[in-house]
Design goal:
Layout: E1 2-7, H1 16-29, E2 36-41, H2 50-56, H3 73-84, E3 87-93, H4 101-110, E4 117-120, E5 123-126, E6 133-139, H5 154-164, E7 170-176, H6 182-213
Parallel strand pairs: 1-2, 1-3, 3-6, 6-7
Antiparallel strand pairs: 4-5
């Protein structure tokens, strides 16, 4: 199993989203002794430039592989990295109720018409095969449940945009209220880790059953 971890926080490994994602990665690796992890830090990823925009608008001739050269090579590399992954772990903070700029840049690089999705009369159709996507979120405020005091545009946006390219098997885990102190933070991590353990065990169960039957 090849796990692609996309890290989005400028705080790097000190971010609560990264710490939660590490628990996710460790839990996934425990189910597969051959698992490998590919790291992709997008916290400072540059936004697509004018060459990219021209290519999408049909004003630049693409190469035969559909990716192009020069300024488009970053997009090509990120798409190939995503295609090679058996599952994806996204570690992201919630910024201003939605995704941070680095994650938005990554999305803009990998959501490519004619490459990762097609536009049809019936709407956009993803070209990537589906695979598990696990999203580890950290937020200073509370955005879910009865204690929610802010809107959540992050999870519906990711579900919609990743679904556009074919990734529909998405699970979200959140450490909310990170500004409320050490005890509240520890409790939030514990809740998220329990949800991760249950979901990963449930996903691994069919594979284990097949091995036992064989």
């Amino acid at each position: 199993m090849n796990i692609l971890r996309i890290s989005c926080s400028p705080r790097g490994t000190e971010a609560e989203s990264f710490r939660l994602s590490q628990h996710l990665v460790d839990t996934l690796c425990a189910t597969d002794a051959t698992a490998t992890v590919t790291e992709c830090d997008v916290s400072a990823l540059a936004h697509p430039d004018v060459d990219y925009a021209d290519a999408l608008g049909g004003r630049m001739q693409l190469s035969a592989d559909g990716f192009g050269h020069g300024a488009l090579s970053r997009s090509a590399a990120l798409i190939c990295q995503l295609q090679a992954a058996d599952c994806v772990v996204i570690a992201t903070p919630m910024h201003n109720f939605t995704v941070p700029s680095g994650l938005k840049s990554w999305i803009d690089h990998v959501v490519r018409i004619g490459v990762t999705f097609d536009a049809t009369p019936q709407g956009k159709v993803g070209r990537l095969s589906d695979r598990p996507v696990y999203v580890a979120i950290s937020s200073g405020g509370q955005f879910s449940g009865d204690l929610a005091r802010q809107p959540d545009f992050l999870t519906p946006y990711l579900r919609a945009i990743l679904g556009t390219i074919g990734l529909k098997n998405i699970s979200f885990y959140a450490v909310e209220g990170t500004v409320r102190g050490a005890q509240a933070l520890a409790e939030a991590h514990a809740r998220a880790q329990a949800a991760i353990a249950a979901d990963v065990a449930r996903a691994a169960a069919p594979a284990l059953t097949m091995v036992q039957v064989a």
